[in-house]
Amino acid sequence: MSRPLAISADHIRVSPSPAGVDPLRMPSHVAVIMDGNGRWAKARGLPRMVGHSAGVEALKTTLRLCNDWGIGALTAYAFSTENWSRPEDEVNFLMTLFERVLQQELESLEREQIKIRFFGETKDLPKRLQELIFEATERTIGNKGIKFNVCTNYGGRRELVIAAQRLAQRCVSGELDPSSIGENELEAELFTAGEVDPDLLIRTSGERRLSNFLLWQLAYAEIHVTDVLWPDFDDVAFAKALIDYQSRCRRFGGLDPIEADQLGSK
Ligand code: FPP
């Protein structure tokens, strides 16, 4: 039986951060490429679909941990524009799985003040799933808790093409002057408009690719790759990712502040 997403009513929200993790230097936004469901199942002699179902449990755990540890947003890559090329029965299974999970968890999302959004071309998804996506988005739009973004039929290149089309349309209609287009104008046309960029990208199963995920938004994200397969991603694996993240010096193209200080005082 699947565990409820919700942190129970008597749950103490201010859980301590895991050992070795500085609660004051948590990422504001974590993005995850949930890879390795198929391999996890294969290693157990099970059908790939069982791996995807186990992946849902790992995603719920990750969302709960983000909530507990004070991370403001979680974005998960659930289905890419390229995933349509998978066998039809796997695609159908995934669509039905998304529907079932949304149906089962909507009340918990509401109760826990989680704000869910979907990034991607949802208009090409099955009708029933589109309805559930609309309902979940609407019913949680005013929630003030953690932001949970699900990338479904999402492709980073496609997102940029759509943004370019929208900007071009606004120029043609005379609403926008092409010379006034800057990063802010483009960002406002992305699926992710209004969301802060991820600070940390976690990819499971050892693959070292972006796979067309958040190409614009990950420009300055720290990347943590783990060999753990997604269904096995738990509090220990997540804490390791956070420790790795906190060990990095984020320079955003500039200098390390200590180095800059030393140069300034010369
Ligand atoms: C990649 O592993 C995983 C996916 C394409 C699907 C991920 C979806 C979930 C975990 C379900 C999320 C549910 C909701 C409601 C958002 P893979 O199949 O490529 O694994 P492999 O590389 O080992 O074959």
Summarize the structure.
The protein is an alpha/beta fold. It has eight helices and six strands; from the N terminus they run βααβαβαβααββαα. It has helices spanning 37-42, 48-68, 88-111, 127-140, 156-172, 183-187, 235-246, 257-264, and strands spanning 29-33, 73-80, 115-119, 147-154, 200-203, 222-225.
Alpha carbon gyration radius: 20 Å
Overall CATH architecture: 3-Layer(aba) Sandwich
Helix count from the secondary structure assignment: 8
Following the backbone from N to C, one meets helices and strands in this order, namely: EHHEHEHEHHEEHH
Structural class, by secondary structure, is alpha/beta
Number of strands: 6
Description:
The protein is an alpha/beta fold and 266 residues long. The protein has a single domain (26-157, 198-264), classed as 3-Layer(aba) Sandwich (Undecaprenyl pyrophosphate synthetase), CATH 3.40.1180. The protein is built from 8 helices and 6 strands, in the order βααβαβαβααββαα. It has helices at residues 37-42, 48-68, 88-111, 127-140, 156-172, 183-187, 235-246, 257-264, and strands at 29-33, 73-80, 115-119, 147-154, 200-203, 222-225. Helix 2 packs parallel to helix 3 and helix 3 runs parallel beside helix 4. It is globular and about 60 Å long. The relative contact order is 0.17. The chain binds farnesyl diphosphate. The site of farnesyl diphosphate has 17 residues, from helix 1, helix 2, strand 2 and helix 3.
